[in-house]
């Protein structure tokens, strides 16, 4: 009897270690049962390519240098409290690793901070798509009363008052110091924060051994379980808006469009660099990538307007681990920046 009880206890403990918190990494998977060849896997994806540049704002070294200075300068906020860097730290995946962003006078905002990694590849900006260009997006947080809380006229007066900025505006924009050139400099800098050389990219380029079998199995699941329906294209986003079933009460796109059918819809985020940008979802409600996989495996959280693309997947532990491994393989390493001394 005692032996039987001990055997049951051992089975329960072993099951917890295997299936519990974060799907134990110690589980050995000898055979993943992958059905697609390497070439078949590659056929579903395409290389990232160079970041798009607007005709009226091509990338130059001078703009990048100026944009970085403006990005880290708290004088672009009221009372010099915050800079763009406050919520977009290079050490934190160019986000802040908080559930909700924190703005002016410690105001807790209502959404998770999106990373600026590969943001130059987006077609619309912010979670709800309210900006149509990176230049427009760059000015949004500055003038938002809950974020940097500085009207744009006052902002440009403050920048013009800094004598040390003039040579940089001379080099980048022929001396024009305006709201438009500030936006263009900030946008140009952000277009340089890209991840484009991951293990996934090397595999896509023909290096079969760049991904191991677990990662390739995860890549296959990414395709067959329809993750690719929304996270498609070279930046892993369809550039569209979907209700993923988060059930946060946030109207999302509907607040911009005025259409009830858009309730709870948010822009599909790209996935490059994803291991650095926890927590996840627009409300930061999923703490780890394992939590995200579990969320989609159960078909969301029951939000009434959930997309028909979201459905229970019934994944095994092996499959969940493989998906997380693939997400790590597409994450790469964010570029480092050297924080400059600010002009005086």
Automatic annotation (TrEMBL):
Specify where it is mainly localized.
periplasm
Q: In which pathway does it act?
A: One-carbon metabolism; methylamine degradation
Gene Ontology MF, one: electron transfer activity
Q: Where in the cell is it found?
A: Periplasm
GO cellular component entries: periplasmic space
PROSITE patterns, per the entry: CYTC
The entry's comment on post-translational modification says: Binds 2 heme groups per subunit.
Needed co-factor(s)? heme
Per UniProt, which keywords does this protein have?
Answer: Electron transport, Heme, Iron, Metal-binding, Oxidoreductase, Periplasm, Signal, Transport
Tell me the InterPro entries matching this sequence. Cyt_c-like_dom, Cyt_c-like_dom_sf, Cytochrome_c_Peroxidase/MauG, Di-haem_cyt_c_peroxidsae, MauG/Cytc_peroxidase
One Pfam family assigned to this protein is CCP_MauG
Cofactor: how and how many bound: Binds 2 heme groups.
Mind telling me what this protein is named?
Methylamine utilization protein MauG
Q: What organism does the record attribute this protein to?
A: Anaerobacillus arseniciselenatis
User: What lineage is on file?
Assistant: Bacteria, Bacillati, Bacillota, Bacilli, Bacillales
